[in-house]
Design goal:
Belongs to the peptidase T1B family. One of its GO terms (biological process) is proteolysis involved in protein catabolic process. The protein has about 250 residues and is of the alpha+beta class. About 30% of the residues lie in helices and about 30% in strands. Strands 1, 6, 7, 8, 9 and 10 form a six-stranded antiparallel β-sheet that branches. A five-stranded antiparallel β-sheet has the order 11-2-3-12-13, with helices on one face. Strands 4-5 form a two-stranded antiparallel sheet. A hairpin with a 4-residue loop joins β12 and β13. The longest helix is centred in the middle third of the chain and has 21 residues. The radius of gyration is 22 Å and the shape is globular. The model has no long low-confidence stretch (mean pLDDT about 85).
Length: about 250
């Protein structure tokens, strides 16, 4: 009794139900409450392909299965979002408002993919520096200067990475090595080659990623226009399961 009085001296009694520094705080998962998994972008000789499945999970529950995570920003820009979908929605709303502000100025300027990436790096790095990070990984694809395909990824820390292939989530580990292995040495992919790669990668991601489903959408950006196709369904073949015995 005496020890209890000494340890609780100067503190409110437990029946007040007040917060104490000794109590554990609320901890959220690093990937967010409702994360989306992989996004994959591939540059080909006439534009960009961006693909993502339509699943947004709630923990390990496949809660939302018809969510478009490839988003059309303008006629020359596509955005693919991985990570916490709430943060992705917040980023897209901010981009939409920025586009409206640019339109109201009526100075002929429009948002290009490279400018969007530069702006996203500052937004994500600024939020991270304030210790209020946006738990999102963004893939930006588009046409720069009317003819040049542009593809870049921006991680949650605001670090950009431009290449002929960009990915977020599990696709960084599974899909990117496959794309690099099939890349021709002296030229870019053709549209047919890039489409085949997208199909193969989405099938493999469905097999390997527990937070993925067979349904996915594909965004294509060319000098003429940007559009989103689908949803498509990844091919499945589980015949090998008959040969599995035990774990």
């Amino acid at each position: 009794m005496a020890n209890d009085m000494l340890t609780s001296f100067g503190r409110p009694r437990r029946f007040y139900n007040l917060m104490s520094a000794d109590l554990p705080g609320t901890r959220f998962p690093a990937s967010g409450i409702t994360p989306g998994s992989s996004v994959l972008g591939i540059r080909f000789d006439g534009g960009i392909l961006v693909s993502a499945d339509t699943l947004v999970t709630y923990g390990n529950l496949a809660r939302y299965q018809n969510v478009d995570r490839v988003i059309k920003i303008s006629d020359s820009v596509l955005l693919g979002g991985g990570g916490d979908f709430a943060d992705i929605q917040s980023i897209v709303r901010t981009i939409d408002q920025k586009i409206i502000n640019d339109h109201c100025r009526d100075d002929g300027a429009s948002m290009k993919p490279m400018a969007l990436v530069n702006w996203l790096t500052r937004l994500l790095y600024g939020r991270r520096s304030l210790k209020q990070p946006l738990k999102a990984e963004i893939i930006v694809a588009g046409i720069e200067d009317g003819c040049r395909p542009y593809l870049s990824a921006v991680d949650a820390r605001g670090s950009p990475f431009e290449n002929y292939v960009a990915a977020s989530g599990f696709a960084r580990l599974i899909a990117v090595p496959l794309v690099r292995e099939r890349k021709p040495i002296d030229r870019d992919f053709s549209l047919k080659e890039a489409s085949t790669l997208i199909r193969d990668c989405m099938r493999i991601l469905y097999y390997r990623d527990t937070r993925s489903i067979a349904q996915y959408t594909v965004g294509i950006c060319t000098p003429d226009n940007c559009s989103i196709k689908g949803p498509f369904k990844a091919e499945e073949n589980w015949a090998i399961a008959d040969h599995v015995s035990g774990y």
